[in-house]
Amino acid sequence: MNTKYAYYPGCSLHSTGAEYDVSFKKVAGKLGVELAEVPGWVCCGTSPAHSASHLLSIALPVKNLSLVETMAKDVVVPCAACYSRFKFATYEMGHDNKLAEDVKEVIGSSFQNKVKVLHPLEIFAQIPPDALKAQVKENHKDKALKVVCYYGCLLTRPPKVMQFDDVEYPMTMDKVLENTGYQILDWSYKTDCCGASFALSETDAVLTLTQKILKNAKEVGADAIAVACPLCHANLDTRQTDINAKYNTDYNIPIYYFTQLMGLAFGYSPKEMGVNKHLTEATMNV
Amino acid sequence: MPTQATVMPDAKFLKQMDDKIKVNVNLCFQCRKCSAGCPMAYAMDYTPAQLIHAIRLGLKDIVINSKTMWMCSSCQTCTTRCPQEVDIARVMDTVKILAVAEGIKPPVSSVHTFNKAALRNIKWLGRMYELGMIGDLKMRTFEFFKDMGLGMKMFMKGKLKIIPSVSPGRTLTTWKIFSRSAKKDRSN
Predict the structure, then answer these.
(1) Is A53 close to B97, i.e. CB distance below 8 A?
(2) Which of A39, A89, A166, B160 has the most CB atoms at less than 10 Å from its CB?
(3) Cβ distance B137 to B113 under 8 Å?
(4) Closest by alpha carbon to A68, among A4, A9, A115?
């Protein structure tokens, strides 16, 4: 498999989610997926933009998509929040003519809306299971690791816009990680909200919501949670100390980007996958 | 005969909502599925279903002064599950925008302050510069020590950049997009 995509890292993958960026690029390279970063990309606007102006919240991702259009490639967007804003932009541009005209005027480009927006999970799910299994190292130490897959809100919702797997019980990440040699467990909090952009503003809401997610993961016997979004990672990983203080618990569950788990199975060291950047340290097997 | 209290819908408000919202809230038949699934309902003063009902009754004061839309985490569960396909998450955004335009001081100021700090950051730098945004937030909230320990840990792990990624071309791009869409929003 040798496929070329435009790559939109978004702000998080260049800072707080640097390990997602590193691990995704390495794993993609191993699987023959070529990535070219979109030159001159700007922030997608994330939640503050759609809370302030609908026009602005579509114009910012469309500016990026118009840059991708000049590259004549489909774009892969690993951050679930950016991915959501990009999908909303393509959906709205196709359904609201007045808005589409306004957006084109605001960004000063004749956008054709021809770019396909993909999440890394969609690309990896297309790779035949045998090709994934072929990359897994024999002595892969994490085979015994029991993992629950956390999709969060924005990968699947709302389904008419995202068109990504089943909205209440998605399986894409489960299958990819299973084919990479992990034990995947069923659980109830796959698509529940972690508090998202309230991380800094309403931190208490994040503690309330993430506590429920960690509790269920522990109840089903998970050793780790796999995520596909830098916001989910930040909320679940960095707040465990605060949660333990507030709820008198002793959570110490490592939160991995699914790309890190893939990379570890492919034989990369934890350091190469940026596991040392996690605040809740991964102590088992690695 | 005692007189009954009558709700007088604010016709101007209903028109404003209709113009901006582009979602037909009148389709709501109050099944309250949105509120049952809302992860943030516990922190709201009115449930999403109650807010939609208040909009339909034209109770402007209740709607724009509510905490509800500020406590919405935009998780899209309500919009996804609504059997009448009312885009409730979009309604929450629209009510926030209207409340700010009306000059209401948001009852959950932390969220509004965060949004403003983030947008200023994107407008002037083109991309989010976390340390700069946190600094801006702290200057406005005076919560200088909140999350200080966490911030230090993240900094030590190399998760926060000291120097923002700036390029003049990119900054000009976002600055133009912000100014032009603000102008369009005013004229629409």
Answers:
(1) yes
(2) A89
(3) yes
(4) A115
Length reported for chain B: 188
Question: pTM of the predicted model, to two decimals?
Answer: 0.93
Taking the CA of residue B10 and the nearest CA in chain A, the distance in Å comes to 24
pLDDT tens digits, A205-220: 999 999 999 999 999 9
Put simply, whether A203 touches B (Cβ < 8 Å) is yes
In chain B, whose CA is at the least distance from the CA of A204? B43
In this prediction, residue A286 carries a pLDDT of 43
B/e letters for A101-127, b = 16+ CB within 10 Å, e = fewer, are: ebbbebbebebeeebebbbbbbbbbeb
The ipTM value here is 0.92
Confidence of residue B2 (pLDDT cuts 50, 70, 90): low
